[in-house]
Amino acid sequence: MNPQVSHLLAEALRLSPDDRVLLVEHLLETLPAQMAEKLDDEFERELDRRLEEMERDPTATVPWSEVKKLW
């Protein structure tokens, strides 16, 4: 990661969660359609992977209330 991107990331991480979501949405809108499609495909594969993992062993999931404590 180049220094400018590192600096921008550090600043972005200081934003509130709501503002970070807005920033991500705006950045995604600036990507060429092919890149957005690639991200959509990768996201869908990750969701499928997680669903399969959960269906294999539902006891391995972590409740959202516990995940939030990690942040």
Provide structural commentary.
By secondary structure, the chain is mainly α. The protein has two domains: 1-30; 33-71, no CATH class. 75% of the residues lie in helices and 0% in strands. It is built from four helices and no strands. The chain has helices spanning 3-12, 17-29, 33-56, 64-69. It is extended, with a radius of gyration of 16 Å. The two termini are 24 Å apart. The model has no long low-confidence stretch (mean pLDDT 89).
Layout of secondary structure:
Elements: H1 3-12, H2 17-29, H3 33-56, H4 64-69
What are the secondary-structure elements, in order, as H or E? HHHH
Total strands: the figure is: 0
Largest sheet: none
The helix tally amounts to 4
Average residue-wise pLDDT: 89
User: How many angstroms does the end-to-end distance come to?
Assistant: 24 Å
The structure class reads: mainly alpha
Keywords:
4 helices; 71 residues; mainly alpha
In brief, what are we looking at here?
The chain is mainly α and 71 residues long. The protein contains 4 helices and no strands.
